[in-house]
Structure formats: structure tokens, C-alpha cells
Amino acid sequence: MNDHGFTVVAYNRTVTKVVEFLNNEAKGTRVIGASSLEDMVNKLKKPRKIMLLVKAGSAVDEFIDSLIPFLEKGDIIIDGGNSEYRDSNRRCQNLRDKGLLFIGTGVSGGEEGARYGPSLMPGGNEDAWPAVKDIFQTIAAKVGKDACCDWVGPEGAGHFVKMVHNGIEYGDMQLICEAFHLMKSALGLSHDRMSKVFDEWNKGELKSFLIEITSDILSAKDRDGTALVERILDSAGQKGTGKWTAISALEYGVPLTLIGEAVFARCLSSLKDERVIASKQIAGPESSRFNGEKKDFIEDIRQALYASKIVSYAQGFMLMRETAKELNWRLNFGSIALMWRGGCIIRSAFLGNIKEAYDKNPYLSNLLVDEFFKSEMQKCQESWRRVVSTAVLLGVPTPAFSSALAFFDGYRSADLPANLIQAQRDYFGAHTYERKDAPGVFVHTNWTGKGGTVSATSYTA
Ligand code: 6PG
Question: I need a surface site. Which of 64, 304, 309, 334 has the fewest CB within 10 A?
Fold first, then answer.
């Protein structure tokens, strides 16, 4: 903000950090320091715009509570952390009752983005937007002339969209890890070769920040000249946003299978000790080496990654669509795709295609039925199936590639075996079912001849 000519007052609970900041990073800038909350509030122009960057959860509530006594009607509190969107719904309502305006904004881009141009996803009380719009859109990353920031929607909509961004980030990372695993275990490629493969991929449809950094990571060496990545413990951490995305999907009944698998893959990875013990006791297939043409299989993996990624984004947008419907939010999917096009962790060329799909049809029911994506999936299908079946035969786990393919096959099926589930439910619990020739009418069959005609009420949770 300072770089772009806005005056910033900096405050931290540990005031020595403010002093250090002013003497180092902020030296020679116009950033003003504050020694207390009251001092900070007094130094700000009205309506005050106060942006919190603190750990999600109770720390945000505590901060807001200690700020409130110093604020006046019309002042704006902006939460830029990774808050849970329902917390933001609540904070927005509570502050509105006090005459204060709340914005919960997603901020993505890591250290570099924060410093040189993040993707910003603000939502909350729309009355606050005119006061911060210029600041946010000026500092945000740009794609051409377009800022990767726009108003998302009411209450916690900004944090919700950021949460889905993070879920997709989990999915993208897991897909890349599966491609890496196949190239390492099934093809036995060196890290330098894999780095080159990712670098090549970064020139085409998969061009993205995460592919780019993966190429860099794979070429990095430890002190002894071997690949640094192999020195890193294979136990993935997580701060919760991926899990929240999966929980929301369960709550709204959206089959967000790929992100769910990505979260569970991290959980499985963290069972390192158990896995080490199991690896000595449970054998897989005799060989995990692929015998065919390596070059062709690398291309198959690329296409499998691309197709799975399309499924992942289609699922992410399905979740946003359903949540928006449930909560009565009007989300603009084309503008969300643009916000993610630059600055953020999932930024990629591919988000430009998603934006185009929603620009063409803002009411698109699913990305998979958009003409462009439909034909991309057709092109990749064969390779994708080859990769998943080969991985299964070789015993290399590919939960995200596989579940994406299972979703794809399920979504394109007019008939699924759920008729049998309905029959089973009715058989053992008299839960009733709808007949194809009389939809909307729930009936019960006395399957054994011993049950009565009484049935359970029919409802879907
Ligand atoms: C971003 C990131 C960031 C996220 C980290 C850590 O958009 O800049 O999504 O907000 O907090 O990636 O996430 P995990 O610890 O859950 O991997």
C-alpha cells in the first residue's frame, strides 16, 4: 500500500516489532508507526480502514473486541487472514449492529504476493467497498489491465471463496505430487529430468505458478549435491482451509471428491511411523516399474494431470454455486476466475479459459459441459485412463487422478447403481423409493412378504 502512495499506519501487539519494522523494512518509506491501538486509531483518517492480519479464530475476535471502544460509526474493519467464512458471517452481522463496517477478505500469494501484488477476494458489508476499492485494486496483481480483485459478495463470501481457492490449491498440489511419484517410482526419472519435464509442461496448458515452483524445487540440491526434496520428511502439514472446504462440501452435499482426497492424502502422509511399519509387512505388486515407452507415458501423465485439474476446478465451482444458492449470495464466477488468474497460489493460464467459459455463459451448470472443456477432456481421456490403470497395476497411489476419473465417469452417466441403494434402504429400513415411471411419489415394497405396509418418512439430509 505504501509503495502505491497510500499512507499506512503500522501496529503490532508486540510494539518492539513496530520499532524494528520502522528501522528496517519500512526505513525511508512514509509508513507511520503506532505504539498502541488507541494511538493507531487516532492517527487514521476517517472513515478508518483497519486491516487485521492475525491468526484465524479467537485472535480475530479478541482484536476486534479491543478495537471497538476506539472506533466510530462508519469505520471499517478488514480481516485479511484465512478466517472461516461462518466466523466472517457472524462478525459482519455483529459489527453492522454496532454501526461498523466489516470486510472479510481473502488474500493470496504468499510472501511475494503480499509484497508485490496479491490476489484479493473481499466480501462483507458492501457499503465499505467504495472506501477500499481503489486501494485494493491498485495493490492487487494485474492480468493485462485487470486487477485480480473485485467485490465477491455479502458477509463471509470473500473468505468462502478464499477457502475454495485453498481447497483447489490442495488439489493442484496433490495432482502434481502424483505426477512426480509416477515419474520417480514407475519411470525412475532423475530429479533433474523431472525438473525439465515440469519446465516443459509450464510452457503449455498446465502453465501455472505451482508447476513452475515444482520445476525449481526438483532441481534444488542439498549440500552433498543430491536432490534436496528427498531430504524432506514426507509428512504433509495443513492449517485447515482444505479440510474446511471438504467439510463445506459434505455440508452442502457437493461431490468435491478430488479436494477431499487431497486432504486425506495429507492425513495418510502424516502417518509416517505406521506406514514405515506397514511397508515391511504388506507387499504390493512384484514390480512398480513401467516397461513401456517412457516419453509416451510422460505425455500420458501430463494429460492425466490436465484432465484431473479440470475436474477439480469443475468441482470447486460446483461447491461455490451450491453454497451461493443456499446462502442467497450472488457470486460472479467469471470474476472469481479472474481474481485467481494472477497473484495467488493457484494462478494459471487455465483460469483464463474458465473465465471465458463463464463470460460466455454466466449460468453454466458445470465447467465439464462447456464446449472448450468438453473437447479438452475428450482429448485427454485415453491417456488419463492409461495412467490410472497403470498406476493401479504398479501399486503407485494416485488418489486424486483416480477419484477425478471416477467422478468424470459418474457425472457423464445417465444411469448409476443408486437404484440398488434405494432398494436396499427400502428393504432393510422401509425408507421408500421413487419409481422411474412416477417421480416424486415415494413408495415402499414389502420385499420379504413378512414386513408390514408401514414405511419411514422420506427426507434427504
Ligand atoms: C495463499 C495460501 C495461504 C495458505 C497456505 C498454507 O493463498 O497464499 O493459500 O493462504 O495459508 O498455503 O496452507 P496449508 O498450511 O493448509 O497448506
Answer: 334
**Ligand 1 pocket residue status of 141, Cβ below 6 Å:** no
Q: How far apart are CA 81 and CA 87, in angstroms?
A: 12
Q: What angle do CA 367, 368, 373 make, to 5 degrees?
A: 85
**What is the best residue among 239, 247, 336, 351 to mutate for testing ligand 1's pocket, by most ligand atoms within 8 Å of CB?**
239
213 lines ligand 1 (CB under 6 A): no
Q: What does the alpha-carbon distance between residue 403 and residue 19 come to, in Å, rounded to a whole number? A: 51
Q: Which residues contact 44 (CB under 8 A, 6 or more apart)?
A: 9, 50
Ligand 1 within 6 A of CB of 109: yes
Average pLDDT, whole number, for the chain?
96
For 233-251, the pLDDT digits (tens) are 999 999 999 999 999 999 9
Q: In the prediction, which pLDDT does 71 show? A: 97
169 is catalytic: yes
Torsion of CA 38, 43, 49, 50, to 10 degrees: -40
| 76-88 confidence digits (pLDDT tens) | 999 999 999 999 9
Active site residue 286: no
Of 367, 320, 370, nearest to 162 (Cα)?
A: 320
Question: For 444, how many CA atoms within 13 A lie in the half-sphere containing its CB?
Answer: 19
Binding site, annotated residues for substrate: 82, 108-110, 165-166, 170, 239, 266, 425, 431
The rounded distance, in Å, linking the Cα atoms of 411 and 232 is: 38
Q: How does pLDDT run across 384-420, given as a tens digit for each residue?
A: 999 999 999 999 999 999 999 999 999 999 999 999 9
Residues in Cβ contact with 350 at an 8 Å cutoff, skipping those fewer than 6 apart: 205, 206, 207, 208, 309, 313
- Work out the number of other CB atoms within 10 angstroms of the CB of residue 53: 13
User: Which residue in 174, 164, 195, 3 sits closest to 84, CA to CA?
Assistant: 164
pLDDT of residue 200: 98
Ligand 1 contact, 82 CB (< 6 A): yes
